Amino acid sequence: MRSFNTTIFVFLLFLLLNIFYFCIFTVPYMNNYKVEDKWSVASPINTSDHQVYLEYINKINNDKKIELNNNNWGISYLYYGISKITGVDTKEIPIIAFVVSNILIVLCYLIFRSLLCSLGFSSKYSFLFFFNPALIYYSQLITKEIFSLFFVLFFTFCILNKRYLFLLLVLPLSILIRVQLGIYGIALLLFRGRRNYVVKFIFLYVLFSLISALIIKYVHIGVQQNLLGDGPVYLSFILNKQYLIGSLFFNILKLFQYFFDLLKSLWFFYDGTFMVDFYKVRDIPFALIFSFLLYWIVIGISNLKLYKYSKVYDLIFCTYIYILVLFINPLVHSRYLFPISYLIVLIGFFFYREFGIQSKNRTDLTSE
């Protein structure tokens, strides 16, 4: 009962902070007022993506043709439908997005709590879920991140508890938000199981590398090449276009680039200034926790055969599949790690308990 009260208190505190943030930054944006200059901060809300979705919603509303070769149309149709049902004007869609995001956050918490308990942790620690500024950042305006977090956690829950029918039922909606989420769900269903996991992991790496290369070579995915830079990501893109081998050789390097991009958020000032960049601040807690847990994650995965029949294996499998699907995207950005951030933290603390705390306790008992 005490832990339940703590969770309710923390959630209400989180909700108040979220509403306060919404009033300070999102409401002025809705009234065409730029708040960055007043508060001397950078990127307090993700206006660029929101503007793209609004353009799509306006085109849908005016019966104009929209592009279907990207992930923008699905969520635009979703919020267009909600606005029509509720009778809300386009200008007030951020309010709907805020409500929807916070409902999803509650659902994500419930799933996270279940995953936490499945690894043998006490549910009294579940309130820590809300100590994440990224939840506040991504619940402003229309974004796909909170949806992505929900689907990744829900699909993981289904795999751990063998609720495959539930996964299949929700799969179409995930495709509407992000096609990659649909691929993720399908891959979880097709390749679940623990037999020959080393061979399976290698096979999946090669398979998804080839899929990524084929998509880049033959499907127009709306990526501007100037956004790829001139480093390994660009080289991988060119090799995929010409020989279909870029992803095979460079996906491992891309994984390091993802986490390096995450760690760059620790310098949370806007480029060339001392203005606080909220786009980076949102990732600081995860970057710090990941830095602390990285050693234990590596130790745990190197001893994965000891946990082949445990729940943590399923979490690692779900995280691995997500990373492979993530490699399909030629761009590298730490925001794409957000949907698996909670899985990574759970895996890390599980192995920290196994090889850190319990190992120390066994050593202390032996010395006595």
Could you list the spans in which at least 5 consecutive residues all have pLDDT below 50?
A: 364-368
The proportion of strand residues reads under 5%
Number of strands: 2
Q: Averaged pLDDT, please?
A: 90
Helix-residue proportion: 55-70%
SS class: mainly alpha
Integer-rounded radius of gyration: 21 Å
End-to-end separation in angstroms reads 37 Å
Order of helices and strands: HHEHHHHHHHHHHEHHHH
Q: Biggest sheet: strands, sense, closure? A: 2 strands, parallel
Tell me, what's the shape? globular
- Give the strand line-up of the largest sheet: 1-2
Number of helices: 16
Describe the model.
Helix content is 69%, strand content 1%. With 368 residues, the chain is mainly alpha-helical. α7 (145-160) packs antiparallel against α8, α8 (164-177) packs antiparallel against α9 and α14 crosses α16. It starts with a helix and ends with a helix. The protein is globular and about 55 Å long. The chain has 16 helices and two strands.
How would the blueprint of this fold be written?
Layout: H1 2-30, H2 36-39, E1 41-42, H3 47-61, H4 73-86, H5 93-118, H6 133-138, H7 145-160, H8 164-177, H9 179-191, H10 197-218, H11 232-243, H12 246-263, E2 276-277, H13 278-281, H14 284-302, H15 311-326, H16 341-367
Parallel strand pairs: 1-2
Helix pairs in contact: 3-4, 5-7, 7-8, 7-9, 7-15, 8-9, 9-15, 10-11, 10-12, 10-15, 11-12, 14-16, 15-16
